[in-house]
Amino acid sequence: MRCDRVWARARLATLASGRPGLGEVEDGCIAALDGRIVYAGPAFEAPVFEAAEVIDCEGRWITPGLIDPHTHLVFGGDRAHEFELRLAGASYEEIARAGGGIVSTMAATRAASEDALVETALSRLDALIAEGATTVEVKSGYGLSLEHELKSLRAARALARRRPVTIRTTFLGAHTLPPEFAGDADGYIALVCREMIPSLAAEGLADAVDAFCEGIGFTPAQTRRVFETAKAHDLPVKLHAEQLSNLHGAALAAEFGALSADHLEHLDEAGIAAMARAGVVATLLPGAYYFVRETKLPPIEALRAAGVPIALATDCNPGTSPLTSLLLTMNMGATLFRLTVEECLAGVTREAARALGLLAETGTLEPGKRCDLAIWDIERPAELVYRMGFNPLHARVWSGL
Ligand code: DI6
Ligand code: FE
User: Fold this and answer.
1) Closest-lying ligand to the alpha carbon of 243?
2) Which of 117, 133, 205, 310 holds its CA 20 to 30 A away from the CA of 356?
3) Residue closest by Cα to atom 10 of ligand 1
4) 0.85 cut: is pTM over it?
5) Segment 29-70, tens digit of pLDDT
6) Burial class (CB in 10 A: 0-12, 13-18, 19+), 398
7) Looking at ligand 1, which atom is closest to the CA of residue 79?
C-alpha cells in the first residue's frame, strides 16, 4: 500500500464507533496518504506499506487529535479584575451594574482591531494545540453589532490560516443584549435575523448558529426566530440551553435538528427524550460549572440511559470559564460529573466531532478520515483523565503532518 507516512509500534485508542471501550489496539500502526488515514489497526493485519517515512512510536499511545466543540476564543480584554472583585464578595449583578461583566468584554472586543483579536485568540488556541487539539470551534458573540460580529468571525476564520488546525466558526449574535438595544430585545433579534445572519451567510463566515436561551439571555420565542433564519440560510444550529434555569431550550433545539445542546444543568426528562429522538449531542462544560461554583449537576445518568451522546468542551470565555485545557476539562468531567475515562476521551474526540457535524471527517482513527493524531507519553489512556496540570503530549499530527 502506497502512503506518505506510517506511525509504527504504537498503541492505539481508535475510539471507532461500534468497537468496545476505546477501540484499543496493543501493537498497532497508522498509515496516511494525502492527509487521510489509509490504515489504522493491528500491525499483524496491516498491508505491506511503501512509505516515504516511517515513524517509530516506541510503544506510545495514539488517540485521535483532540476536539474542543464549544469555545468563545475570540474576545478583547480580560476579566481578571472582575474575578478579584468576585473573590472579595461582589455579585455578578453588582459587577454588571458597575459596567463590568459581559458588556465590558463587548466594549473591549469592539475596540480591538481584527488583527488584535487574532493575536489574543492565538495565545489561547496555542494552549489548546499544545495539548493535542486538532479541531476547535470558535464562537462570535462579543461584538453584538453587524460590524463587530463580522469582524469577530473573520478573526476566527483567520486562526486557521495561522496554525495547522481545523477551525469551525459559530455565529452567536444572540449572546446578550447590547446596551444600545436596552429594553428592546425583539428589536435586536430582528437585527440579528434581518442583517447579521444574511451578511455572514453571504460571506461564508459561519458554519453554525448558536444562541443563549436563558433568563439573562433570550427567550425561546426569540431563539426560535434566530433558528428559523439560520435554517433559511442552510446553517445548522446549536444552543446554550438550560444552564441557569429550564426554559426548555433543549427541546427547541431538538425540534430544529440541532447539532448539540450545551451546558444542560437544568435539563429535564422531556428535554432528554427530545434530544435522544433527534440525535442531538449533549455538550457538557465542566469548566463553567466549576468556575461559577454551580451545584446543580447535569442529568448524566438520565442522558446515558436515553443514549444521548455526550461531548465535553472548555467553553473558554473570559466570564465563566477562562479555561484552555482539554486535559483538565476531561479531569473535571470525571471528578465533577462522574463521567468514565471512556466517556471523557470520547467526549473530546468522537462525540466532539459529532457535536460539530464532523464525524465523517475526524474524531476517530479510521480509514478515510483526516489524519489528526495526538501521540502521548503515557502507559495507559486513563492517565490523560487522571492527572492534573500535566501535559504528556509527545507529538501532534494535523492532516497527516
Ligand atoms: N454562557 C455563559 O455563562 C457565558 N456565555 C454564555 O453563553 C458568559 C460569558 C461572559 O460572561 O463573558
Ligand atoms: Fe458558552
Assistant:
1) 1
2) 117
3) 319
4) yes
5) 999 999 999 999 999 999 999 999 999 999 999 999 999 999
6) buried
7) 12
